[in-house]
TrEMBL record:
PROSITE patterns xrefs: PTS_EIIA_TYPE_3
CDD domains documented for this protein: PTS_IIA_lac
Keyword tags: Magnesium, Metal-binding, Phosphotransferase system, Sugar transport, Transferase, Transport
Species whose genome carries this gene: Enterococcus hermanniensis
Designated name of the protein: PTS system lactose/cellobiose-specific IIA component
Keyword Transport recorded: yes
InterPro entries membership: PTS_IIA_lac/cel, PTS_IIA_lac/cel_sf
Length: 104
């Protein structure tokens, strides 16, 4: 795998992981009634997802321009990691809303 592509794949993994971690922390903060902190953690998760999307877009652009990208387990893992992080962040937002309604 070319070094530039490896950096993009690792960006997906790193930023996706950061998003998932922040979303989990947001749930814990909401569980403790700290909704301001929970909202901040969700914003951090969303920023990480944007960064991951930038990495993904770079890879997609290269492929669309005709560059042959080698698919390997690391590439598949990075995409899986990103999609899981997106779903987890969306679910975290819903859980935080439930905690917010329960505490009101």
């Amino acid at each position: 795998m070319q070094e530039e592509n490896l950096e993009a794949v690792m960006g997906l993994i790193i930023h996706g992981g950061n998003a998932k971690s922040n979303a989990m922390e947001a749930i814990q903060e909401a569980k403790n009634g700290e909704f301001t902190v929970a909202d901040e953690k969700i914003k951090e998760a969303e920023k990480s997802l944007v960064e991951a999307h930038h990495s993904q877009t770079g890879l997609l652009t290269k492929e669309a321009q005709g560059e042959q990208l080698n698919l390997n387990l690391l590439t598949v893992h990075s995409q899986d990691h990103l999609m899981t992080s997106i779903a987890f962040t969306d679910l975290a937002k819903e859980i935080i809303d439930v905690y917010r309604k329960i505490s009101a």
